[in-house]
Amino acid sequence: MSSDTPKEPRAPGLLDRRRLLLGGAAAGGVVSSLALAPGLRAAGSPENLPPNTPDWSVYLGEGVDARPYGTPSEYEGDVVRRRVEWLTATPESSVNFTPIHELDGFVTPNGLCFERHHGGRADISPQDHRLMIHGLVERPLLFTVDEIKRFPQENRFYFLECAANGGMEWRGAQLNGVQYTHGMIHCVQYTGVSLRTLLAEAGLKPKGSWILAEGADSSGMTRSIPMEKALDDCLVAYSMNGERLRPEQGYPLRLVVPGWEGNMWVKWLRRIEVGDAAWYHREETSKYTDLLPSGDAYKFTWTMEAKSVITSPSPEKPVTTEGFQVIKGLAWSGAGKIARVDVSLDGGMNWQTAQLHGPVLPKCLTRFTFDWHWDGKPALLQSRCVDETGYVQPDIASLQEVRGVNSIYHNNSIQTWQVNPDGVVENVRLG
Ligand SMILES: Nc1nc2c(c(=O)[nH]1)N[C@H]1C(S)=C(S)[C@@H](COP(=O)(O)O)O[C@H]1N2
Ligand SMILES: [Mo]
Questions:
Q1: What is the pTM of this model?
Q2: Which protein residues are within 6 Å of ligand 1, measured from CB?
Q3: Residue 265 lies in a domain
């Protein structure tokens, strides 16, 4: 037996609490001007804490008839989509953002999927909706929604990213929150019928080389898609995450164009016209273009190239204590699977490999984490992903070399978060 005097038992494990920062009254940390997470702000009611017995352990809860359709805990009320008021003139032709800093895993809950509408949300009765397929086909067809559901079914996970995600960040750090810099993205499991099956039903004529997809909303949005993609992996979807599409996401039918910019994923889909190359050039179509420094523009940039971001710590998720932290983030590529994610703690001088949390699926969000011991010193957090084609997520300087600073779309550059000694996290641009 040791003759040593017994020591104070040391708390085992990772979370040995050292200097508590934000929100810790005992900590002596600098209190940030940022809103604290609700859990930290509200100190809670001491009568609910051990050794006392809280009410919920004493009284019966509500019965199973109280909530026929469930909603999140009332204590998660901050986990909502948000919009930036000055960004667009009206809320009908606008966008809101997914709170990606609050989510785990890779699936976006249906009620939190960002919305992008050009003419507001259409609320469509499925009985009053039809999908027409016509143009260069043998048999023009008009489908009811129920008829679409009778076709062989596909179930696949995909991310959808608006090409404008990060568009405000081209010239410099703009929006101090990952919800706003990266939140025009969601990832759900779609159920639907392969577009190839529907086109075969109508009988494609050999000259058909494009499709034009049109929505039934007030913007009547149309997008042209090359036939090769239409016959590859596109879906006409009627469900997301197991339930019917939400009205915001195109109920009762939406086009799914895996890996390609969100604008092509026509919601409230009512018409698909098959055309040839000459037809395509006559047709008024909507597309996003990428302005180049020369004044020329890329007419077609379809694939959403590999991108990643650290979602916590982030401006909304400050570091609250020194010591062990899990850095969490998301990576995705419209070209396939994510192969690797690296994390830098010093603004890109040194990189270490993060852990990927499966399933790692093609054209899908991939969750990564990186274990970090924060010593309380300033840090510059970055993530950089590589996809299965070998494509490496670029830094903003390399993107600007090609695209200049007047672009809006397709900014997939590396994001930097600066962690200050008080734990506050800020969106910064290096260099
Ligand atoms: N009919 C129709 N489809 C549409 C749009 C629209 O305004 N009307 N917006 C497009 C754009 S720009 C994007 S980014 C995605 C957004 O999909 P979401 O609202 O499900 O996030 O839908 C696309 N499909
Ligand atoms: Mo978009």
A1: 0.90
A2: 113-118, 160, 162, 186, 215, 217, 219, 221, 248-249, 262-263, 265-268
A3: yes
